[in-house]
């Protein structure tokens, strides 16, 4: 059956449910696509960092990263005594005394007799023994001072040990020698008692 030209068919209303579903799918696809981009990951990571209450206290250079870098440098040049010494220092500051000793001894083998390395070994031995002056510690200090009588680390160890042994006069004398300041007997003391 044909319709006269002037008669129009009523328009069907658009399928609202289908349009709404298509709009939701498009929005979801856009949001999902954005979430997969590196920019979103960076934004999310920064948001998490800012939400961390300890963010101002954390060191971006983690100890694990420091250790990895040191190990990479040593692998690249195993004859670099300076990197071995840095590795020893890394372990010393983390109370890993056995590893610190190994690293410092390797640095000493590579560099030869060196006051700073003997003093570093003495430091490790001193703290490894619970801040007690052992014969091995004393030997390393003596070697350091034989090479450099003004080695600060060796002198500080002697002063610290004197203090730990309650030999305060010797500790003060050693510390004064290190700082280059001596109080004359007539100078007022910090206690305000004078002489």
UniProtKB/TrEMBL annotation:
TPR repeat intervals: 81-114
Keyword Transmembrane helix: yes
Gene3D superfamilies: Tetratricopeptide repeat domain
A biological process from GO: cytochrome complex assembly
Domain Cytochrome c-type biogenesis protein H TPR: from-to ranges: 40-179
Keyword Cell inner membrane: no
Keyword terms of this UniProt record: Cytochrome c-type biogenesis, Membrane, Repeat, TPR repeat, Transmembrane, Transmembrane helix
Transmembrane feature ranges: 20-37
Protein name in the entry: Formate-dependent nitrite reductase complex subunit NrfG
Species lineage: Bacteria, Pseudomonadati, Pseudomonadota, Gammaproteobacteria, Enterobacterales
């Amino acid at each position: 059956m044909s319709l006269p030209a002037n008669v129009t068919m009523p328009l069907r209303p658009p399928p609202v449910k289908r349009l709404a579903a298509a709009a939701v799918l498009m929005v979801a696809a856009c949001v999902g696509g954005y979430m997969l981009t590196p920019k979103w990951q960076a934004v999310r990571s920064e948001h998490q960092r800012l939400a961390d209450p300890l963010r101002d206290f954390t060191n971006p250079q983690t100890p694990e990263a420091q250790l990895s870098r040191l190990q990479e440098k040593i692998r690249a040049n195993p004859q670099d005594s300076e990197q071995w010494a840095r590795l020893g220092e890394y372990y010393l500051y983390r109370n890993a005394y056995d590893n610190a000793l190994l690293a410092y001894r390797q640095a000493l083998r590579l560099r030869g007799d060196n006051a700073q390395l003997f003093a570093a070994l003495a430091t490790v031995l001193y703290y490894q023994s619970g801040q007690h002056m052992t014969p091995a510690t004393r030997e390393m200090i003596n070697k350091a001072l034989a090479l450099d009588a003004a080695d600060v680390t060796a002198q500080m160890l002697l002063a610290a040990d004197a203090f730990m042994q309650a030999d305060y006069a010797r500790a003060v004398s050693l510390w004064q020698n290190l700082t280059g300041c001596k109080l004359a007997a007539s100078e007022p003391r910090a206690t305000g008692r004078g002489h």
